[in-house]
Amino acid sequence: MKKTPIIALATAGILVLALSGCGTTDVAAQDTAAPESVASEDCAADETTTSTDPVTLTDDFGRTVELEKPAERVAVLEWQQIEDTLTLCVTPVAVADAEGYTTWDTAEALPEGVVDVGTRQEPNLDALFATNPDLVIVEATGADDEIISQLEAYDVPVIATIGADAADPIAKMLATFDLIAEATGREERADVVKDEFDAYLADAKGALADADLPTTDFVFFDGWIDGGNVALRPFGQGSLIGELGEELGLTNAWTGEVDAAYGLGQTDIEGMLAVGDATLLHTGTVGDDSDEFLAALDGNSIWKTVPAVAEERIYSFPAGIWTFGGPRSAQQIIDAYVAALSK
């Protein structure tokens, strides 16, 4: 699969979605029975309880959402929230872009029986509501985003979320997780997962502190070919992956301009000379076409003068780690840091 620039993947969920007719799903063929209830072995062993109390919550845009009871049949239109729902041991009845999720987010497997309602940009909403959801979770650009009113026209409660916040990406990631837990009555499960995440982070920080690292400076980046040139996106201050690295005791050496939501910068090969001796880490690629930018880097004489490249301190994270995911993706990121830097 040819790799889409990572920022396009990250922000695709906030584009306007069409009402109907633009998805690829045959509504008449949908099976609206509930999918498998257990999403993973972790959930099979889960002993936490689910609340049965009425729910009143406030979503990311200050909208009050009221449920007579916690949602059970949830439709989810963005990958981070799909992952979060599965981590909470709630299997969605419908998701957008199941194939893309399965490729790029391996933190939680999508069980069989979940209806794919088309792309995140243009899901088939008739197919979505044919699954009879009692809640829809979507990313939006604001409280007045047209997608919210389009979804609400089906008389089903809608939670609208913001994709990210570079001011505190870890807190935002956990807040989204908590919001979904509240809506589904799975707050007890959420507390267990967050405790596991904290312990994971602490253990990994200790492991790296004991490692003999040549430097604690790092830069994580992604890239692609744009008009024959290599385009690079450093994950700078305010990126989830960058902040996780700093929580591990590392220093993000990319100090250039970044966007206010995802903490992503943009540069060319020459721009990477500014990171000095920092160790370089990059996204794992998927498919034969997606490592084109790496091949282009290898053949560039300027790239070879970057200290980490010259000293062979450039490492790939495993493919399938969603760098804009929830607590379980964050744990995969933590594992990848330790594995790469402990070599």
TrEMBL record:
<keyword id="KW-0732">Signal</keyword>
<dbReference type="Pfam" id="PF01497">
    <property type="entry name" value="Peripla_BP_2"/>
</dbReference>
<dbReference type="InterPro" id="IPR051313">
    <property type="entry name" value="Bact_iron-sidero_bind"/>
</dbReference>
<keyword id="KW-0813">Transport</keyword>
<protein>
    <submittedName>
        <fullName>ABC transporter substrate-binding protein</fullName>
    </submittedName>
</protein>
<feature type="signal peptide">
    <location>
        <begin position="1"/>
        <end position="29"/>
    </location>
</feature>
<dbReference type="InterPro" id="IPR002491">
    <property type="entry name" value="ABC_transptr_periplasmic_BD"/>
</dbReference>
<comment type="similarity">
    <text>Belongs to the bacterial solute-binding protein 8 family.</text>
</comment>
<feature type="domain" description="Fe/B12 periplasmic-binding">
    <location>
        <begin position="73"/>
        <end position="343"/>
    </location>
</feature>
<feature type="region of interest" description="Disordered">
    <location>
        <begin position="33"/>
        <end position="53"/>
    </location>
</feature>
